[in-house]
Amino acid sequence: MSAAAFLVWALLPVVDDLARRIEIGFAAGAALLAVLLARAYQHATGEGMAPDSPEELEAQIAALDEGA
């Protein structure tokens, strides 16, 4: 997703200077990737889920399926 966003940004002539456009796109793509990875990690570890919530139970079932 972040690579696709970078490519779209790089192809749009929003910033005239190509080098500056690539620098901005790389930084924004890296930031987007960091956010997406943090959310994926948070979901995988179950942080932020209320005890006995459907999301927490689903995560427990998924963890049991992976262990089998």
For the biggest sheet, the summary is: none
Spatial separation of the terminal alpha carbons: 31 Å
Q: What share of residues are in beta strands?
A: under 5%
**Average pLDDT number:** 83
In angstroms, what is the radius of gyration? Answer: 18 Å
Q: Enumerate how many helices there are, as a single number.
A: 3
- Are there runs of 5+ residues with pLDDT below 50, and where? none
Structure report:
The protein has one domain. The protein has helices at 2-11, 18-45, 54-67. The radius of gyration is 18 Å and the shape is rod-shaped. It is 76% helix and 0% strand. It is mostly helical and 68 residues long. Helix 1 (2-11) runs antiparallel to helix 2 (18-45).
SSE layout and pairing:
Layout (H helix, E strand, L loop, with lengths): L1 H10 L6 H28 L8 H14 L1
Quick synopsis:
The chain is mostly helical and 68 residues long.
Characteristic terms for this protein:
68 residues, mainly alpha
